[in-house]
Amino acid sequence: MSVPTLAVFKLASCDGCQLTLLDCEDELLTLAGEVRIAHFLEASSAVTPGPYDLALVEGSVTTPADAERVREIRAQSRHLVTIGACATAGGIQALRNFADVEEFTRAVYARPDYIDVLATSTPVSDHVDVDFELRGCPIDRKQLLEVITAYLAGRKPDIPDHSVCFACKRRGTVCVTVAHGTPCLGPVTHAGCGAICPAYGRGCYGCFGPSGSPNLRALIPLLHRDGMDDRAVERLLRTFNAPAFDKEVRS
Amino acid sequence: MTNNPATGVLDRDGLSALIEVLAAQGRTVIGPTVRDGAIVLAEIGSADDLPFGWGSEVEAGRYRLVPRADGAVFAHTAGPQSWKTFLHPQREKLWSAERTPDGALSVTEDDPEQTSYAFLGVRPCDLRAITIQDRVLAGGRYPDRGYRERRTGAFLIAAECTEPGATCFCVSMGGGPAVDGSGFDLALTEVLDQGGHRFLVRVGSEAGRDALDGVPHAPADAETEYAARAAVDAARDRMGRAMPPVDLRTLMGESLEADRWDDVAARCLTCGNCTMVCPTCFCTTTEEVTDLTGDHAERWLRWDSCFDVAFSHLHGGPVRASARSRYRQWLTHKLSTWYEQFGSSGCVGCGRCVTWCPVGIDITEEAAALHDERAGRLRHEKQKETQR
């Protein structure tokens, strides 16, 4: 079997997630031996045309051009994995989904008629079939390696979708909500980060989006109890995974 | 307190010396210590690491570390961990496999030398929990070798309970604040009165006697014994909570279709905290690790929870997809089907699941509600019967 090709693409995003791939310093040489990196502009301007075996797609769909491009990427990719909160939930730019984009363009740009954007920022899976979604803002390096390794081995990646609380308890972090009354989204947030924030005494802010079975409505009274008013709760939920949490609030 | 004669009295220096003796035996001494606003279990270098002058105030979904003017060291209730953190660690390697250049596989079972622990301050509820996990993990035909070795090698210093918390209900689960019978090497009872800050010591094993012989201690005196007994007896009456005094096993079995499960499911975050803090919850999943080349693979055991949707994933999807079914699985297993499986209840009444549930779901309140619902149902059926 020939070496599989790997392609990395980006839509509307900050590049942080694809940077995570370059951040796999110890594994990069091994990875380069197991795949042929055919399209990864952040690493090399040398590009090989598709089709590609494994495509990693970062970023959300925010323009008609993105929507067209993501269909092209899908058509060229045998296995498509979206990486990061933008690609899996719309990202911070999905805050526009709750506002009037035309009003923004009028206020910001001298020639708003030059701006060709969609009214919403949406995850890639709203546009094309996605084989796997890797969450996080940014994604976790080890989880990215697990996804690639699992693909190479022909197995499912081991990426649990339970809550961040699992990770806190495993690493022995004292619960910031129970012991300190700190508002925390950990009980409704998808694990994967290793529960970094509570380990440093701050509440989880949900950068991995909702867990596999979130009960957000049961958590909101706790956020209120711990000092957050409705506006503060809304702000906490409306960050990198705003549409995903919004759907849970309404469910 | 009757089975083992009191054999000595330690003061703070004696306690300190005991830690040194155990450490000199090559043991890793684990005990309570203050970290991040709670009393956690961690490696203890000396008695200075122990939580002298710290206590805890707990309620459902709430824990606060509070200073204590009396300087007590064991006057706190269950923190976010239990001894299973050490005996049944959250992640453990089972084996690794290598693919040789000629394509053959070689599998190596992981068999590390296990840490020799000394646990300082094991509460009676946790002593029972360890016995329950012994049955689960080291009993039966397929014992967990790592667990068994760590457990066999562990030196247990129990600490009787003199300060139960608001979420404690061990008495209603058939336990109590006193250490009875066996299952420990040394048992301490903290005494704080005009006679000073001291610990009544009872010996539970040969190893316990040897350790005590190695530290300066006074002979047990009637006053200390009386004060210790009084403190533990008083604790028995100060349990913050109680399970309803009914046959929980039957109650659970006859409540499978109860409406209460919907009520609790609306509040339950399914976050898994209750199972992680429970000293008897033992469930694990296996994690298959491969490297990028595919030439090296490992299998690890890691804590899992019946609150994880994937936990009951079989062909086609999870068996317990709803929060209702998952909470019901946890409670009915803990209080009822555990008997069929392991010959006892799975609950020791330590109160951790009540304290460390972020939304404060209270196992005793849920059991009481299920009991009320069942009683109402039975009354209704009886009325219908008499009307006929």
Q: What attributes does this structure have?
A:
heterodimer, A: about 250 residues, alpha/beta, Rossmann fold, 2 domains, B: 2 domains, seven-stranded mixed β-sheet, 4Fe4S_Fe_S_CS (chain B)
Number of separate domains of chain A = 2
CATH topology of the largest domain in chain A: Rossmann fold
**Number of β-strand runs of chain A:** 5
Measured between the Cα atoms of the first and last residue of chain A, the distance is 47 Å
CATH-wise, what's the superfamily of the largest domain in chain A? NADH:ubiquinone oxidoreductase-like, 20kDa subunit
- Order of adjacent strands in the largest pleated sheet of chain A: 2-1-3-4-5
H and E string of chain A: EHHEEHEHHEHHHHHHH
Quickly give the CATH architecture of the largest domain in chain A.
3-Layer(aba) Sandwich
How would you describe the oligomerization state of the chains in this entry?
A: heterodimer
Please bin the fraction of helical residues of chain B: 25-40%
Binned strand content of chain B: 15-25%
Q: What is the succession of H and E elements of chain B?
A: EHEEEEHEEEHHEEEHHHHHEEEEHHH
The parts of chain A where pLDDT drops under 50 for at least 5 residues are: none
User: What about the largest sheet of chain B?
Assistant: 7 strands, mixed
Cα end-to-end separation of chain B: 56 Å
Strand order of the largest sheet of chain B: 1-11-10-9-8-2-3
